[in-house]
Design brief:
There is one protein chain. Helix content is about 45%, strand content about 15%. The chain has about 250 residues and is of the alpha/beta class. The chain has a single domain, classed as Rossmann fold (3-Layer(aba) Sandwich). The radius of gyration is 17 Å and the shape is globular. The model has no long low-confidence stretch (mean pLDDT about 95). InterPro entries: KR_dom, NAD(P)-bd_dom_sf, Sc_DH/Rdtase_CS, SDR_fam. This is NAD(P)-dependent oxidoreductase. Belongs to the short-chain dehydrogenases/reductases (SDR) family.
Length: about 250
């Protein structure tokens, strides 16, 4: 199965790795970004240089109208989306709960991690649903093992947002299965990405955490991408309403 793949938050890290591998597997790739314009455009240029088809689309996924407009632009540039990776995410406020006095920071976290997933899935379903004349499709929601273990210290808010991702995946999958749409989730563990470098103190901290991971190391974005592309593939055609861990056993 290949068609048009939209990856949200694809300018860097896991999203960029998914976009690159998706192109290599034959997908026409829509690269969504919020602020990482230069990185997204460089990614698209690299995909094109390798013989793939891709385009970059700016949109704040936490803005419903912006998401609707982005999907319309993707329709025009690449065709209707047949696979969606809801990857865009932020860490949000890193603090103990009793010190969380910034409601705007909490709202911004949920806007991207939760509301954005709703908005993008809504638009994808409108295009994919066989009940609406579409071809069917796949939605993969990128969660986190933090949803299961509660997150790193002072990241309870982030963990709770990823718990919402898991619930959404299960419920939506059952809702749209009759429409020919599979919905699956993917929980990465600690992965060597810029977002972790920015928020937990860089590679020295990641290296310090590595011994607590049963497999003994931090994950690579490319390893998460392989799992994501498996979930999109026909090899996973009997999988829906489930979320898999790619976490080194953490």
């Amino acid at each position: 199965m290949a068609g048009v793949l939209l990856v949200t938050g694809a300018g860097r890290g896991i999203g960029a790795a998914i976009a690159r591998l998706g192109s290599a597997r034959g997908w026409r790739v829509a690269v969504n970004y919020g602020r990482s314009r230069d990185a997204a455009e460089a990614l698209v240029a690299g995909i094109k240089a390798a013989g793939g088809e891709a385009a970059a689309f700016a949109a704040d996924v936490g803005d419903s109208a912006a998401v609707t407009a982005m999907f319309t632009e993707v329709d025009r540039a690449l065709g209707p989306v047949t696979a969606l990776i809801n990857n865009a995410g932020v860490i949000g406020p890193v603090t103990r709960t009793e010190a969380m006095d910034d409601p705007q920071a909490l709202a911004a976290l949920y806007a991207v991690n939760v509301f954005g997933m709703f908005y993008c899935s809504r638009e994808a379903i409108r295009r994919m649903s066989r009940r609406r004349g579409g071809p069917g499709g796949v939605i993969v929601n990128i969660s986190s093992v933090a949803a299961r273990h509660g997150g790193l210290p002072q990241e309870v808010a982030y963990a709770s947002s990823k718990g919402a991702v898991d619930s959404f995946t299960t419920g939506l999958a059952r809702e749209v299965a009759p429409d020919g749409i599979r919905v699956v989730g993917l929980r990465p563990g600690l992965t060597d990405t810029d977002i972790n470098d920015d928020h937990i103190g860089g590679k020295s901290v990641l290296d310090a955490v590595a011994p607590s991971i049963p497999i003994g190391r931090i994950g690579r974005p490319e390893e998460i991408a392989e799992a994501a592309l498996f979930l999109l593939s026909d090899a996973a055609s009997y999988m829906t309403a489930t979320t898999i861990d790619v976490s080194g056993g953490r």
